Here is the input.
Amino acid sequence: MVIAAIIYVSISVLLVISAGIFFVKAIQSLMSKNQASSYKRTEQVMFLRSNSGDPLSISTRRAEIVAMLERQFAGSPSSDS
Here is the structure.
């Protein structure tokens, strides 16, 4: 019984240590990616260019995105029915 408890505790400690190492590595990976990319992908968000100041083109692009999403979700099965 004592041997089983020692094995249980040692495995638990090893799992906690490995989870901590994995978490630290993941955070370091995310930090290095954020520093490496100088936010060049922000222009691609919502298919809007940062230099397009025309409200008509922005609303047209948003309408296109909404229409695309409506078409996509109209054909998907719903849990409501």
In short: Residues 2-36 form the longest helix (35 residues). The chain is about 70% helix and 0% strand.
